[in-house]
Amino acid sequence: MEVLEQRLAWIEPDHFERGSAVRVIERQKDGEGTATFTSPDNNQLLRFNLSEENRLRLLKQRKVADGILLELGQDGHPVRLHLVELKGSVTTGKWREVKEQLLGALHNAHALMGLLGLPMPETVECHTCYTKDRIGPQESAQPALFKPGVGVKLPPRQAQDWQQGYCELSPEFPRFRHHKHRRDEQGDVVVAV
């Protein structure tokens, strides 16, 4: 824990937040709002703000999700890594973009873990906080895509992972658990991790 405290001193204080509740804030108009994450187990959460402007510039992946949350157990060791993106409406195209941003956040998280002198947690979970789900058959702009054709083998749906609660970011990483959180009219949501 001492090494973590020393290493956190290397980071500008306005780029992270820690506590049993932390906030990921999206300021852009189409996804504006706040996602507050809490730890029911009273684990410490360490949140890093990211954006396309506020990312590790040496990494090739330019798109990054809005936040990285590192969950530390009572012993101070990493328990889980949470990658968080806030969006307005989620369409199939936006879902592809969200996955790119989550991948960028994962790359940044690997670098941050090295900077903090901590091992990468075994568990990585992805979170999308959204206002409208435009992917499901009830909300899709193209509901006919969900209807099977007669005698025609359907190609795999592009947003199947969105529907089934997992996230495939890249062939180099395993499939991660994905949580969807609907935001209120103000764009806010509270999530217990």
Features:
globular; 193 residues
How would you characterize the overall build of this protein?
With 193 residues, the protein is α/β, with parallel strands linked by helices. It is built from 3 helices and 12 strands, in the order αβββββββαββαβββ. The chain has helices at 2-8, 92-116, 160-164; strands spanning 16-19, 21-26, 33-38, 44-49, 67-72, 78-86, 89-90, 123-130, 132-133, 166-167, 176-182, 189-192. It has a 7-stranded mixed beta sheet. Strand 2 and strand 3 (33-38) form a beta hairpin.
Number of helices: 3
Strand content: 25-35%
The strand line-up of the biggest sheet is 1-4-5-6-8-11-10
Q: Which consecutive residue ranges, at least 5 long each, have pLDDT under 50?
A: none
Distance between termini?
A: 22 Å
Mean pLDDT: 87
Which sheet architecture does the biggest sheet show? 7 strands, mixed
Query: What would you call the shape?
Result: globular
- Percent helix, as a range, is 10-25%
Written as H for each helix and E for each strand, in order along the chain, the element string is HEEEEEEEHEEHEEE
Estimated radius of gyration: 18 Å
Please count the beta strands (DSSP E, at least 2 residues each): 12
Structural class assignment: alpha/beta
Summarize the structure.
The chain has three helices and twelve strands; from the N terminus they run αβββββββαββαβββ.
